[in-house]
């Protein structure tokens, strides 16, 4: 069996350590086993250099976002970001992602097939802050946008909402300049709250009424979207009104939000009724 450039079937197993033999179980690999694989290939330093470059690129992007946050907080008298998180994928996580794609583990395949080794998540106060800050980042002349996925305008079936962009940004080394990929996610506080809990719950096994729970999560995501829009409307009224009383006539956007909220409630009632009928059938059986 080949893993990347290394054909394990050609190795003399009598000369292999237990750690090396365990590499034959390619579906479940530990950090130590990946290190051993890199040692066997003589690619430890090359792998470390690659990960260092991604870490540097992540620092560059984080700095760009922090500068934008400082400038916009002075211009607008409020911070567009509530928090900025960043992370580098672990070697095990990188291996597992390649394995899910059916791609052998190698440095070349990592660089060609994975775009989110370096990841940054910007948690914004309001939805319009997301698009405003993302546009500011994309307009910088040393940032190349490779992919953009707007899950706010078009949510996933699960209800997940976020704006994802994959960019290339340069890092300056001693002898050259290299462009490295970084994935940047933009979410509101409410979107991040929902996504964090949904991520934890979906990995639990043997869940009863999984279909109903998925419907509940989707319903919750829709409610959170309504909350985001309501909070933005309130902020816009405060910014525009100088403390004056709100008008009694709802805006077109508010009327649309009310209709969507009623539709969400109608779907939730229907889902509960369907679940009750299913429970009744099970008892009857």
Characterization of this structure:
With 285 residues, the protein is α+β, with helices and mostly antiparallel strands. The chain has helices at 18-22, 31-41, 44-76, 91-100, 107-113, 127-138, 189-202, 210-241, 252-284, and strands at 2-3, 6-7, 81-88, 118-124, 144-150, 163-172, 177-188. The strands form two sheets. The protein has a five-stranded mixed sheet with strand order 3-4-7-6-5. Strands 1-2 form a two-stranded antiparallel sheet. The longest helix is centred in the N-terminal third of the chain and has 33 residues, at 44-76. The N and C termini lie far apart (50 Å).
Brief synopsis:
With 285 residues, the protein is an alpha+beta fold. It has helices at residues 18-22, 31-41, 44-76, 91-100, 107-113, 127-138, 189-202, 210-241, 252-284, and strands at 2-3, 6-7, 81-88, 118-124, 144-150, 163-172, 177-188.
How do the strands and helices of this protein lay out in sequence?
Blueprint: E1 2-3, E2 6-7, H1 18-22, H2 31-41, H3 44-76, E3 81-88, H4 91-100, H5 107-113, E4 118-124, H6 127-138, E5 144-150, E6 163-172, E7 177-188, H7 189-202, H8 210-241, H9 252-284
Parallel strand pairs: 4-7
Antiparallel strand pairs: 1-2, 3-4, 5-6, 6-7
């Amino acid at each position: 069996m080949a893993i990347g450039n290394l054909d394990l079937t050609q190795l003399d197993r009598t000369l292999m350590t237990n750690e090396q033999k365990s590499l034959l179980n390619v579906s479940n690999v530990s950090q130590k086993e990946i290190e051993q694989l890199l040692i066997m290939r003589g690619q430890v330093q090359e792998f470390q250099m690659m990960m260092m470059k991604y870490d540097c690129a992540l620092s560059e992007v984080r700095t760009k976002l922090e500068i934008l946050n400082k400038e916009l907080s002075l211009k607008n008298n409020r911070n567009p970001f509530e928090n900025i998180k960043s992370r580098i994928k672990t070697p095990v996580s990188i291996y597992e992602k390649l394995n899910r794609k059916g791609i052998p583990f190698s440095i070349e395949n990592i660089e060609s097939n994975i775009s989110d080794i370096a990841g940054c998540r910007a948690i914004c106060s309001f939805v319009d802050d997301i698009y405003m800050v993302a546009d500011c980042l994309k307009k910088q002349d040393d940032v190349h946008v490779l992919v953009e996925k707007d899950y706010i305008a078009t949510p996933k079936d699960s209800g997940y909402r976020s704006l994802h962009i994959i960019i290339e940004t340069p890092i300056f080394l001693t002898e050259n300049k290299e462009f490295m990929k970084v994935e940047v996610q933009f979410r509101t506080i409410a979107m991040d709250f929902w996504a964090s809990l949904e991520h934890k719950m979906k990995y639990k096994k043997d869940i009863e009424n999984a279909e109903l729970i998925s419907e509940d999560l989707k319903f919750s995501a829709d409610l959170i979207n309504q909350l985001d829009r309501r909070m933005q409307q309130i902020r816009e009224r405060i910014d525009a009104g100088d403390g004056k009383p709100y008008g009694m006539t709802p805006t077109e956007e508010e009327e649309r939000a009310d209709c969507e909220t009623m539709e969400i409630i109608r779907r939730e009632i229907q889902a509960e009724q369907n679940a009750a009928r299913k429970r009744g059938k099970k008892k009857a059986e």
